[in-house]
Structure formats: structure tokens, C-alpha cells
Design a protein that fits this description.
It is a single chain. Helix content is about 15%, strand content about 30%. By secondary structure, the protein is an alpha+beta fold. The strands form 11 sheets. The chain has a 7-stranded mixed beta sheet with strand order 4-3-1-11-10-5-8, with helices on one face. A 5-stranded mixed beta sheet has the order 12-20-19-14-17. Strand 24 and strand 25 form a beta hairpin. Helix 8 packs parallel to helix 11. It is globular.
Amino acid sequence: MNKTPYLRALSLALALLLTLALVPPRAFADDGNPFAMASVQDILVKPGSKDGHIRFGEASDVKELSFRGEDGKEVSAAVTSIDDALETVCKNAFPTSESIRNVRFNYISYVNVSAVQGTIYDGYNTEGDTGEGVAGVKKYYHKDAVSNYRIANIRFVPKTTFSGQAMIEYYGYYQYEAKDDSTNLADKWVVKTGSYTGRLYITVSKQEPGIAYSTDGEPAQFAADDFVTYSTAVTGRTFKYVSFRLPSEREGVLYYNYISDSVYDYPVAPAQRFYRKDTPTVDRVYFVPAKDYAGEVHIEFTGVDSADTPILGELTIHVTNHGPEHQQPRAEGPFVYRVAAGQPVSLDPTAFDDQVQLQIGEGEVFSHFSLASLPPADSGTLYYDLWTRSDHVVKVGVNYASPGSVRFVANAGYSGIVSVPIVVTAMSGRHFDSMLRFVITDEGDQPLRYKVEPERRVKLIMSDFVDACYDATRYDLNYVVFDSLPPSAAGTLYYQENTPVTTKTSDRYYKWKLSEVSFLANASFTGETTFSFTGYPTNYNSYSGRSFHGYVTIVSTNTVTQKPAIGGTATLLEYATWGPAVALSYSDIYRAAAPSLQGTPATLSLGRPEYGTGQLCLDFYSLSNYAPFDATVSHPLSDASRISYLPKAGFSGVSEIPFTVADEKNNSYTGNIRFVVTPSIYSIYFTDMSGAPWAVQAVDFFRQYGATNGNSRSGFGPNDSMRRGDFILLLQRLFNFPAAGSSSYDDVPADKYYAAAIAGAKALGVVTNADARTAPNPEYVAALAENPNARPRVRATVTGFDPEGTITREDAALYLYRALRRAGKVQPGSAADYARFPDASSVSSSASEAMGALVRDGVFQGYVNNLLPKRTLSRAETMAILYRAFT
């Protein structure tokens, strides 16, 4: 017996069942349902907010709501939320009768809106926390149902470029009781279900979203994302910086880096610029309402977008005042510590115990805390005393169970507020994010200062260094090493009057030798000069103890004053980042150079970062929109803020480059710019990255620039396999493939989110027909199943890209290489470039050139000493590879 027709029929049946499981259902009802042909009214909504956002469960988001039936007439709705409106149109369409009762609206699914019009989210909070996209197969229940997925949590966010009437289609589901006529029982009722299609229309006006905050008398912190949204809606580009028109004193005050009424960096000045990603940043601006004020505060702001187009707007702050507690000084917070420059301060363990119970719940017990990043190197250092081995440097990602054994030592000469993010964990495993803040004042030890006349000698004083050591470490001084020396134009530092002091680490000046160290001033020395040293206490050894840094200032007593010498060395400028590009500041460089130049600073020259540490970029606004910086020529100083430093993947530490500023008279001033790169092993966006700390920086980097959003509200899925369609979508976002329609391969539906990306990649040759795979045509298979002897008039096979399939390391290398070649960022490779790997022969000939180029350039680094070209690529591995390619 020939079983082939039966097998074909079985295959067809299984394929049909699978298709039905994935496709939205058509309107249906149980047999005998009198509602089978019924339709529901359209729901017409006008949002109450300017930005057009509307939450399905919030009446306050709805300005006007009405219904429209098949006759086209509109009827004003008695309900005020979309959730209630969905229930109303369901009940209007399916009324009760003698044979029908208890009609109940249940849930909706397959909620869909055109991407041109906007996006629908579940659990949207802010632009930076959008929650999940609304999935077609998920059921979103009416408010009286018990479910994590609720209609009330759905939010429609229109595209900023869209205005008009957005149409949202949905499938509604209901339950009812019908009289069972198949039995002789008079009161026999059975529960039945049905579904229907409906439409929801939301009128969106031109969006110029306002910026608004609310506060109950507490400080209101501004958010850069809000200004990004506003600027994008107005000009189509993100903002570069903004300035504020200050509120009246009766309303309140704007502060930068506000902690309490007595702790803040400074009050905001009129027309002061605050940047999106440079310092000072908008994210650190606070509005502090006056203690007796309640009402609305309107603050005008002006600025420019990324193309220097002016933007202007107004933000509104709603201030309420609910009691006498607002007349009291505001608390500084549980983890705020005051410390003088050069002094230590220990953490308070009771604060951690109290906050665990307050933030997590009564009965919870503190377990440990860890740092998400370190304080800036120039501000001070955190140390951990562990029994007899004291003064260990605190590290990122390490759990510390004894807060009282952790202390922060502020560097001498530093003042300001230092914020250090931490994660506090209870014994139950529950945790919360918080911030250590150290308020460093200049009340501590000043630099060791000595006065001297020209051509005269001044001796250093041993007790000054001993006191500085005790203040910093609480131990006696053993020796010092000089890190720098006075410039030769000022004078010379000597030991025992005739031996020049050196900066060699082997030249230790023990405390009893310090009184024999002197400075001999030159005849022309005027003003002051400073040099630094590192001190080592008596408890210092190779595994414990800490050194400290200090500096000595020599002041000339000559009354003749001169302008600082042209060509001097500027104060070191420092910029910090965990991985994203960090922009230089025009104002920082101008202030450093201007006092020493006779004319107006005009041009800027920069050195190149050391190989393997990073690169300088021009106009780095997105991953696909920036240019390499040309360090071989001078640039206008006004372009300084257009220059960014992009760290290399895997680099951690300090990269330092020289800069030279020249005026129009060709006088020059030189200095150094230091970039401090401190990666974290804890993701700032996703909660499931603990198993792949090596990929955290790469994942966060691409999330920072919008290339990936993860696969859930707070998860990235690092161990999940990367799908082929998703990989091409990543390349499209990174390389900005031009639009090329949505038609590419037979198995890539035009309405899929990755369709346009694959079409664009195919048009550019990033993917080709040679990459296609053939598969049986479902229509051909169906026709043969119906009649094995037929000759179907359709193709037996179709061309497919398999977008839902997983991608191999070899295919990923091939597609990435083609994209890099089109961008002019890579040269061809060969098999010789990866011949050192034991499994080199397993690389397909079609991918040899690509694999060779990416291995040679360090983009592909192998997996457990092998290339494994046929191995499936995980999502975390994908991001790590792309990160190396783009930096």
C-alpha cells in the first residue's frame, strides 16, 4: 500500500493547524449563535494631552469619546475611558433576549496599528521605559478580570511625525449564556463564547509635546529624555543644549546637583547652557519650590538641536503643598556623607538597615551592597578594611556585607559632590538601587605652601608631610615619591642642596630626609608653581594599605607680576564614561587656555589616542552618523564640542592626549585631556545580564543608542539564539540602510518588522540570492495532497531567507563584513588570517574572505580557541562582536 498520499495529507493538516495557531481568528461564534453576523460600533477618541499619548484605562487622558455605527452617525459616549468604551460597544452589539443572557465583555487581542501612525505598548512609563510591545496572541483583559495583562495598561504612543486619525484594529471576545433547546429542561443554560472585529480611531493633532513635572513641595529633577522628545517633535532632531529663564524667587530656585537646602553645586545662572550628554547636563538640574508656594510654575527654555537649529519652549511644574512638613529643611538622604578634602569618612551601617526595611519591607534584613561604578579618580577612593588586612580598594561588582568597614577618602584639593550608584540587597535576595553621595568641601588640608624670593632657597618641612599622611590614612608617614617636578623656568628641587630630586619610583624620600629637600628659585620666577607627590604610610605593603596623593605649591614673593608664560601647561581636563562616546567641552578648553594667550583663542589641535584605547570622532550623534576626526590638521576652537572620544571595546582605564590652542597671533598653549573609561559588569538597562557580564558593556552600549531594546520590558535574553531576521535588522539600524521597499524573499512577509531591513540589505548586496534557501511551496504541497496525479500550476519551491531561523557565526561574519565593506571600514581577508585556529578548515569558502578580515581586525576572536563557524550565535555574543566592529 502506497502511504505517500496519507503522509502528504497528514503533513498538510499539521501545517494548517500550525498556521491557524499563528494567524488572528476571523469573527466566529458557536453553532446557533444569533450574533454571528453582528458588528460593533467604532470608538472615536480625542486625547487630552498635546503629545497624543493615551492610556486605555485613564479617563484623564481622554478629552472626548464617542461611538459611530454602520449608519455613520456619531453618538456621544457616557463612559470616559477606552476600557469602558470597549465594554459598552460589545454589550450594545450583543443585547440580551429570552434565549440570551449575561453577555459579558472578556478581553481583546491582535491589537494592531500602522507603524506610520504610532506604537502600542503594555506598561509604558517613559520614553526610556516603554514596557513591552503589545503582542498579537496575548489576551488583554477587561478591568474586572484577574490577569497581569490588562486593557487598562495599554498605551497608544503616536509617532512624532504623524497627525490625523490613527486606526487601531482589534479582536474582541465575549461570553454569554444561551438556552439549551436540545433538552427538555426548561431552565437549562449553557456558557458560550464568541468574537468580533472592532476599530478604534484616535485623532492626533500636530505634536509639540509640553514638558511637565509635578511635586508635592519636593525638588523636581529635570530629565534629558523629555527635552529629546520635545526637540525631536519640533525639529526632527535631538537637542544639543538648553538654557532656562529663571523662575521668580517667590516660586522657587533652579539648582545644579541639588541634594539638600545646604548641599548643592550652585544655583543655575540665566542663559547657562545645559547639555544632553556633556557637562553640565540637564539631568542634574533641579527645581526647588519655595517652602510656602503652591501653584503652577512656567519656565521658558531656549537652545539648539543637533544641527544648531534654534528651539524654544516652556515647561510647567505643578507644585502642591500639603502640610507643615514642607516648612522644614529638606533631608539630605540616607546615604549622604560630608567630608573635608583630604579626609576620610566611613559609611553608616544603620542607614543600610533602615533603608532595607523602608524600601523593601518590615522584617527584611540587610545582606550586602555593591557598587555599579567607582567615584571619579580625581575625587577620592573607596576602601574596605577587612580584619587585619586593611585598606583594600573597593571594586565594582563585589558584595560588601559590612558598610561600616567601607570608607571614602577625599583627595586633597577636590571640592564638589560625588555620586556613586549602588545596589543594596536583603537576605531575601530582593534589592533596590540607591546612591552614595559624598559632599566634599575645601575645609580640609590645603596644598603644602611655601614662599620664596627669586634666587633664594626654601626648605620643605617634614611635619607638613607627616600631618598630611595622618589626615589621609590615620597612619604615620614612611616615605614619599615625587610624581612631578617644578618647571625648569621656575627653579629646581634639590636633595641636600646639590643633588636634583627625581621622579623615579625607586627614589624614596623617607620622612627624615624631607627636611633636606629644598627648592631653589630662578631669578625670573614670579607667580606660583605646583608639583605633586605620593605618600606611603607605615602600614603600606604589596597587598594592603593605601597611599595618598598631595602636592606642594611654591609662591614667589616678588612683587612684579607678569602674564603667565605663553606655551605653559594647562590644567588637566578629564572626561569619564562607562563606554558611550563622550563629547569634549568648548568652554573647558577655552577657560584652560585663554588666560595664557595674548590674543583670542582661535584653533585647536589634538593628538591621537593611544592605539587600542579608542578614537576621536566628529559629530557623533548616532552610530551611523559620525565622521573620523582628522588629527593631522588644526580645527576651529568653536568645533571643540563637536568632537567626541569613543572608547575601544574591551578598553578600561585612562587614555590621555595632548591638546594645543593657538590664538590669531600664532601664540600657543598646550595641555592634556584625560579620558577615564570605567566599564561596569552590571547592566543599567536589563536585569538578566548577570550570567554574561562580559557582554554587559556591549549590550548597554547598543541600548544607549537605540539599536536594541531587548526582548521584554526589562530582559535582553543574552543566552537566546540570535535570529537571522533580527541580525539583519541590527545591521540596518547600525549602518542606516536606505529604504528599498519590503519585498525581498518569498518567506519574508511585507508586514514583518524586519521586512524593510532585509529588503534594504538585499538591495545593497549585504544579503544576496546566493544566501537564499529553497523550500517546498505550500501551495504546491497542498495541491499534490489533494490530487497526487495533478500538475499544479505553481512553483514547486520558493526562495527563502529563513528570517525566523537562527544565524551561524559564519553567516553573521559574512553579512557584517559586506556591510563594513560598503561603509569602507574593512579590507578583504583570507584563510591565512584565521589559519591559527584548529578548525580553520571548517569555514565555508564563501565566507573565507569575510572571516579572515574580521579575525585579522579583532572583531571575531574565536570561541574556546576555535572559530566554530557553524555554531549558532547567541544574542550576547552578537552584541559583543558588533561592539568590537563599531569601536
